[in-house]
Design a protein that fits this description.
Layout: H1 4-14, H2 16-42, E1 58-61, H3 92-97, H4 116-122, E2 146-154, E3 159-166, H5 168-171, E4 173-178, E5 181-186, H6 194-212, H7 219-229, H8 235-254, E6 267-268, H9 270-281, E7 296-297, H10 319-329, H11 355-366, H12 399-412, H13 414-417, H14 424-429, E8 431-432, E9 435-438, E10 441-444, E11 449-450, E12 453-456, H15 457-460, H16 465-472, E13 474-475, E14 483-489, E15 503-509, E16 514-515, H17 516-534, H18 539-545, E17 552-553, E18 558-561, H19 582-585, E19 595-598, E20 603-604, E21 609-610, H20 614-619, E22 634-635, E23 638-642, E24 654-655, E25 664-666, H21 671-681
Parallel strand pairs: 1-5, 14-17, 24-25
Antiparallel strand pairs: 2-3, 4-5, 6-7, 8-11, 9-10, 12-18, 13-16, 14-15, 19-23, 20-21, 22-23
Helix pairs in contact: 6-7, 6-8, 9-10, 10-11, 10-17, 12-21
Length: 684
């Protein structure tokens, strides 16, 4: 028998290439089988979206004037001021250890990727204040608008952890590029894409889970585990981490949104997302979920602290309600679990929201009262965040042309958007106390606020989707425990004979078909009240936190017309971001582009807005277009907004001589008039 070994060895030596190839093929087959099995087990899309390239440029802040401006409260402190949110569904230590996703999941077996928090995240529209060459995870900094919050429950982990979430600056800090400079606009509309962030982060986590199932080819997971676990890296801790990662991906797969209208860069269906988070996720009631269908351009927020009503539809009055509601919408923790048996207590509305921090941010935004020591006939003073001024590094403003544009503004814009803020009329004639009735008594605010015009949809003619969310959506709040006093707008049919004011306090209670606006206002009020009780808040301090205004709400089929200070830095235009520049906005609706490309940062200083690329320009020249909503949402990494789709319409707000056009607000403007008006808007 021993003589057979040389024979076998000789046979193997003669055929070693064939044997080696066979072994390699078998190994690849095993890996492929295990990979396919793992992919089927994960049931999650692991291929990330295509994103725009990121270019690191010199950065210039053009309106860094928040109040107060001291060493403690410098202009950048709100960028990372926690609002108690856990918008990103993984702990902070995972995020800093996470590698960017491979474009193709199969390639996770090869080479290491840079950290998710380096260049990759900035391709999603976030603003970089860091060194993009940094690779040490202990030194990686969060992008502008993301903040850490300690001790937040993480359902995928079944424990508390340090979470990462949005601050208000994540959605309300704009940016654009011109030549070799990146301009940061504090309070401007963000250029981010939350949908792509979710997909990209999910792909990065999913690929890490996939790697963990492919030992010994699990380098991606091993690198992640070593960074997360540090000195606690061992077989047991790795197994627990793998289990937690898998559970997180399962939750991400289960919680994927239903999208009827894609949001894209610079837009978010904020109202429906807040409603889904509060009434579907927090209450664990899937029937309260509403598809994403009414995206809006992130609104700019300078001057808003002094408006009588905020939001595009003029639905909220009190700053604290607005800010706490926003925190709930981007995943602040709040106890809203309903009892499942008689032994359980109802929801307490205890939350992770730091109310005092929200107040400080609002003070930074608002500054001192603009009419303090005001003399009639003079100008008030904004000491908080100011609108950006047109930078000297952009093409110079033509003052002669701007003077002609000022006359056009008076004739065409002022009746809705009010006189410019450098006019005494703005300060003298448009500020009023807010009057309301409570417990049969007429009350009014101590201070005056800027009274904005609310324009009915039938007149303005713009896309109605966002304005219809609050009046039309209902939610089931049965057993939640609502019994909450709110101030609401009442029309003539709702008033009783002894009522004199349009704002009246009512009690909102649980209902299977609660109006979304009132239910949301009640939940936020209960959440704030719980914080007041837990923190032993005095009546005097409580009134300061509330900003001296009652929690008044209204839902109406209308949009508010705000002052146009800084409007040049807030593209895209209309509430839903369906118009790329001011020139198109001032043109007749039929002359506006059908497709708009969003995500491109290059500024167009002539037409004033977002530069458009070759792909979308070619689309707008085609005559044989596919039906609405059939064009690919993303092309070459950018979002292509189809204005023919409901929710994306670019109609209304029309300067035209055609009296049949819905939303006609003025006469048709010729080219010279448009350019003059644009030149004047640059000065505001």
């Amino acid at each position: 028998m021993s003589n057979q070994y040389p024979i076998v060895l000789g046979w193997l030596l003669r055929r070693w290439p064939w044997v080696l190839s066979t072994l390699i093929i078998l190994a690849i087959a095993v890996i492929a089988f295990r990979t396919l099995s793992a992919l089927n087990e994960l049931k999650y899309a692991l291929t990330p979206p295509k994103l725009p390239q990121y270019k690191h440029l010199d950065t210039q802040f053009i309106n860094q004037t928040g109040w107060p401006s001291t060493d403690t409260y410098n202009h950048q402190w709100p960028y990372h001021a926690s609002q108690g949110t856990a918008t990103l569904p993984i702990p902070y230590e995972w995020l800093v250890a996470l590698e960017a996703p491979k474009n193709t999941p199969w390639f996770i077996l090869f080479s290491e990727e840079k950290a998710f928090l380096t260049e990759y995240i900035y391709r999603l529209g976030f603003i970089n204040l860091n060194d993009t060459t940094q690779t040490d995870p202990t030194k990686l900094q969060l992008p502008l608008g993301l903040a850490k919050t300690s001790s937040i429950p993480m359902p995928g982990l079944n424990r508390k952890a340090t979470a990462v979430g949005f601050t208000c600056t994540a959605c309300h800090t704009g940016q654009f590029t011109y030549k070799n400079t990146r301009y940061v606009v504090d309070g401007g509309p963000a250029m981010t894409d939350l949908g792509l962030l979710t997909k990209s982060l999910g792909a990065a986590i999913g690929q890490t889970v996939l790697s963990s199932k492919l030992a010994p080819f699990d380098g991606r997971f091993e690198r992640f585990a070593e960074k997360v676990l540090g000195s606690n890296y061992n077989v047991v801790s790795k197994a627990k981490l793998k289990e937690a990662l898998t559970e997180t991906v399962a939750k991400l797969a289960k919680g994927q949104d239903t999208i009827n209208v894609t949001e894209g860069f610079t837009r978010l269906d904020a109202l429906n997302r807040i409603g889904n988070k509060v009434f579907a996720d927090n209450m664990d009631r899937p029937e309260n979920y509403n598809p994403i269908e009414a995206p809006v351009n992130y609104p700019h927020i300078w001057t808003t602290s002094w408006f009588d009503w905020v939001q595009y539809d003029g639905s909220i009055m009190q700053p604290l309600i607005r800010n706490a509601g926003e925190a709930l919408g981007v995943a602040a923790y709040v106890d809203m679990q309903i009892p499942t048996n008689q032994l359980q207590q109802p929801a307490t509305f205890a939350s992770s929201i730091p109310i005092e921090s929200l107040y400080n941010i609002e003070q930074w935004l608002a500054g001192e009262y603009p009419l303090k020591d005001y003399t009639p006939g003079e100008l008030g003073k904004i000491s908080g965040l100011k609108a950006p001024k047109w930078p000297d590094s952009l093409p110079r403003i033509d003052k002669t042309l701007a003077a002609k544009g000022k006359q056009l503004y008076t004739q065409n814009c002022q009746s809705c958007h009010l006189p410019p803020m450098d006019s005494p009329d703005f300060w003298q004639d448009h500020w009023k106390e807010i009057r309301y009735e409570q417990d049969g008594e007429v009350k009014q605010t101590e201070l005056k606020y800027l009274e904005l015009k609310l324009v009915n949809l039938a007149y303005i003619g713009t896309d109605p989707a966002q304005a219809e969310v609050l009046p039309n959506r209902t939610v089931n709040t049965k057993q939640l425990g609502l019994d909450t006093g709110l101030c609401v707008y009442v029309d003539d049919q709702q008033k009783t004979t002894n009522m004199t004011e349009d704002l009246q306090f009512v009690t909102v209670q649980d209902s299977v078909t609660n109006n979304f606006a009132l239910a949301l206002g009640a939940v936020v009020e209960e959440t704030n009240q719980q914080w007041f009780r837990q923190n032993y808040t005095s009546d005097e301090w409580l009134q300061k936190l509330k900003g001296g205004r009652p929690n008044c709400l209204r839902h109406s089929f209308a949009y508010k017309a705000r002052p146009l200070n800084g409007i040049w830095a807030t593209a895209p235009y209309l509430h839903n971001g369906s118009i790329p520049n001011l020139y198109s906005l001032l043109s007749e609706p039929r002359e506006r582009p059908t497709f708009v490309e969003l995500g491109r940062l290059e500024f167009d200083p002539i037409n004033v807005g977002i530069s458009q690329g070759k792909i979308v320009n070619a689309l707008n020249q085609q005559s044989d277009l596919q039906p609405a909503n059939q064009t690919d949402d993303y092309q070459n990494g950018y979002f292509i907004l189809d204005t023919r789709q409901a929710g994306n319409h670019n109609s209304g707000h029309a300067f035209t001589d055609d009296k049949t056009v819905v939303g006609k607000i003025g006469k048709k403007l010729n080219h010279e008039e448009k350019m003059a008006l644009i030149e004047y808007l640059k000065t505001l």
